[in-house]
């Protein structure tokens, strides 16, 4: 024992710089990680019995959003392309929340706390506009209203050469046209809510968007015009602009619409098409950096969770949210405005008066309205 003690006394941590350097490095890594992870949703508001639709809710951020909102009392409908994966996600959410819920001896209705949570799955494939119509029709016949619509599902690094069955570029349809159509179809139900909220998920990348003013909806020969990255940025800028347009259209109603960027998020299926993620050795090299500089799905979900639950945002519409915790960020609004200005303040919105957009076959032609944002 004495020997050990004297060893400690003799050990001089300052005889070498390595412990100091190591400590500084660890401190730096923790600091960067903390900053990059962003803030948590600052409130714990309950949304008892509110009906919430989350697209792409079976994995990644959609899953985290659905879980958080279910925990706050919402009735969640997961809109998933893959029903099997969706059912599995719903079961996981219910089980996890059930485990956290203490047994209520007075509640004789169900012995299993997991059954107190309402998480259901419906089929929705954004690659198909008719699937969007079916989904919306089914939802509207099943539920009397919808309180929150989270348009979370999206695509990045798709193949720009291959159009969807409806004849559109994939990013444009999955990230923009289909969510916008879904929103328009569900509007009557959102208006029946005491306070309907529509949330779009955009991305920082919208700032890099290139718009072709002769073809703002990118329905021309996109494969030649755009790399997948540009097509993605384009669809996300279209979302920011559509948010502003829709907010104007909805003035005087109880429905608000906002969009947010989750920041850089790793560990979602979002990047599954990325060329970076296909090679093993590249993965080994990039994962530590992704861990350090990117948010995980839970952290990325916080902005949308706040938009769905914060009573302070009741009157806020048409805004672009960046950092989740803070009040909406004037600078980001300015960015979005500047971007909108760059697009000459124009946005083409598919014919609002023909819900279903029946005649769309890749050529929007006269079915397109021109709107000032
Ligand atoms: C759907 O999800 C299940 C479970 O995750 C998976 O096994 C199956 O391959 C998926 N189907 C399609 C068509 O992706
Ligand atoms: C159960 O009911 C009794 C009597 O109605 C009440 O005193 C008690 O607080 C209740 N317990 C819980 C956990 O709600």
UniProtKB/TrEMBL annotation:
<feature type="transmembrane region" description="Helical">
    <location>
        <begin position="16"/>
        <end position="36"/>
    </location>
</feature>
<dbReference type="GO" id="GO:0016491">
    <property type="term" value="F:oxidoreductase activity"/>
</dbReference>
<dbReference type="InterPro" id="IPR002347">
    <property type="entry name" value="SDR_fam"/>
</dbReference>
<keyword id="KW-0560">Oxidoreductase</keyword>
<keyword id="KW-0472">Membrane</keyword>
<dbReference type="Pfam" id="PF00106">
    <property type="entry name" value="adh_short"/>
</dbReference>
<protein>
    <submittedName>
        <fullName>CG31235</fullName>
    </submittedName>
</protein>
<keyword id="KW-1133">Transmembrane helix</keyword>
<keyword id="KW-0812">Transmembrane</keyword>
<dbReference type="InterPro" id="IPR036291">
    <property type="entry name" value="NAD(P)-bd_dom_sf"/>
</dbReference>
């Amino acid at each position: 024992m004495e020997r050990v003690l004297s060893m400690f006394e003799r050990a001089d941590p300052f005889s070498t710089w390595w412990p100091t350097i190591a400590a500084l490095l660890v401190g730096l890594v923790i600091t960067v990680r903390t900053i990059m992870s962003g803030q948590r949703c600052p409130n714990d508001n309950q949304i008892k019995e509110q009906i919430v639709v989350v697209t792409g809710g079976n994995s990644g951020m959609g899953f985290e959003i659905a879980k958080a909102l279910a925990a706050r009392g919402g009735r969640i409908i997961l809109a998933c392309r893959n029903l099997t994966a969706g059912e599995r996600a719903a079961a996981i959410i219910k089980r996890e929340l059930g485990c956290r819920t203490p047994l209520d001896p007075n509640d004789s209705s169900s012995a299993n706390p997991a059954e107190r949570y309402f998480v259901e799955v419906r089929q929705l494939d954004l690659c198909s506009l008719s699937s969007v119509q079916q989904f919306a029709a089914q939802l509207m016949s099943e539920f009397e209203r919808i309180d929150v619509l989270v348009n979370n599902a999206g695509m990045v690094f798709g193949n720009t050469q291959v159009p969807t069955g409806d004849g559109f570029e994939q990013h444009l349809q999955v990230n923009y046209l289909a969510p916008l159509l879904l929103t328009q179809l569900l509007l009557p139900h959102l208006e029946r809510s005491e306070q309907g909220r529509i949330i779009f998920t955009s991305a920082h990348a919208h700032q890099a968007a290139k718009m072709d003013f002769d073809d703002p909806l990118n329905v021309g020969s996109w494969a030649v015009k755009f790399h997948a990255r540009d097509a993605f940025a384009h669809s996300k800028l279209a979302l920011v602009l559509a948010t502003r347009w829709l907010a104007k259209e909805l003035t005087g109603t109880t429905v608000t619409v906002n969009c947010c960027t989750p920041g850089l998020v790793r560990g979602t299926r979002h990047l599954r098409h990325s060329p970076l993620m296909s090679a093993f050795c590249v993965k080994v090299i990039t994962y530590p950096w992704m861990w350090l500089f990117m948010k995980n799905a839970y952290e990325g979900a916080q902005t949308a969770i706040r938009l769905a639950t914060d009573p302070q945002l009741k009157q806020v519409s048409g805004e672009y949210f960046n950092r989740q915790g803070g009040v909406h960020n004037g600078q980001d609004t300015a960015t979005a405005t500047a971007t909108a200005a760059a697009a000459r303040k124009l946005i083409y919105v598919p014919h609002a008066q023909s819900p279903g957009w029946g005649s769309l076959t890749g050529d929007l032609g006269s079915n397109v309205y021109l709107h000032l944002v």
